[in-house]
Specification:
- This protein is mainly alpha-helical.
- It has one domain.
- Strands 1-2 form a two-stranded antiparallel sheet.
- The two termini are 25 Å apart.
Length: 95
């Protein structure tokens, strides 16, 4: 695994995906439509995060999202906004 610069190691491959709790689930649960209404978004994100909460590779998934700066979707139980906030917090601590 490679360092990502924010305290997480980036997965070196994709093998972790085979163990993911989201495997076989509809991608629309983790990647909402662009014009999604706020209530629908909250419900979708809550459902997706519940799956992530019991996932054995959640940390690897989140590390991948940070390492490759995934801009969309829920990865490792984190939404786009949560990843952006974590990245901004890391940048501030690094200054």
């Amino acid at each position: 695994m490679a360092a990502t610069g924010h305290g997480r190691a980036a997965p070196s491959g994709w093998d972790w995906r085979f163990q993911a709790a989201c495997r076989g689930r509809p991608t629309t649960l983790f990647f909402g439509p662009s014009a999604e209404q706020p209530k629908a978004r909250r419900q979708r994100e809550t459902a997706a995060k519940a799956i992530c909460a019991r996932c054995q590779v959640r940390d690897l998934c989140a590390a991948y999202a940070f390492a490759y700066q995934e801009r969309y979707g829920i990865w490792g139980g984190l939404t786009e906004r949560e990843r952006l906030q974590a990245w901004a917090d890391h940048q501030r601590r690094s200054e």
